[in-house]
Amino acid sequence: MSQTISNGRPPQPGTAPAVALHIDWTRCDGRGLCSEILPELLERDEWGYPLAAARHRGRDIPIPAESEAAARDAVALCPVIALRLTDPHAR
After folding, report:
1. Distance (Å, whole) CA 24 – CA 65
2. Of 61, 66, 55, 56, nearest to 88 (Cα)?
3. How many CB atoms neighbour CB 28 within 10 A?
4. CB contact set of 86 (below 8 Å; sequence gap of 6+)
5. How many CB atoms lie within 10 A of CB 91?
6. Strands 50-52 and 42-44: what pairing?
7. Across 57-86, average pLDDT
8. Which of 63, 69, 37, 68 is nearest to 50 (CA)?
9. Amino acid 76: pLDDT
């Protein structure tokens, strides 16, 4: 089965991510479920709070098309609603 992104078209190699994962650290309580769902994109600090993996900075993490479904799961399963998907190109 081919993978699609939110616009219904298959992801194109080398294209910019369609979504970014925003972490609201003021809501987060450090349970770590998101870092278990997205281990290639999220790490945990010593208190269990999610951090962008070493190759990313900040709290808006670009999500590659192949990880978009897992990112949507992480957002849906966050018990304190500390995650959301955003448009990485919006300013």
Report:
1. 22
2. 61
3. 20
4. 19, 20, 21, 22, 60
5. 3
6. antiparallel
7. 92
8. 37
9. 97
Distance between CA atoms of 71 and 37, rounded to whole angstroms?
A: 8
Tell me whether residue 21 is exposed, middle or buried, using C-beta atoms within 10 angstroms of its C-beta: 0 to 12, 13 to 18, 19 or more: buried
Rg, Å, the chain Cα set:
13
Q: Is 87 exposed, middle or buried (0-12, 13-18, 19+ CB in 10 A)?
A: exposed
How many Cβ atoms sit within 10 Å of the Cβ of residue 70?
A: 17
- In tens, the pLDDT along 28-49 reads 999 999 999 999 999 999 998 9
**Sign of the torsion formed by the C-alpha atoms of 73, 76, 77 and 83:** positive
Residues 88 and 17 sit within 8 Å (Cβ to Cβ): yes
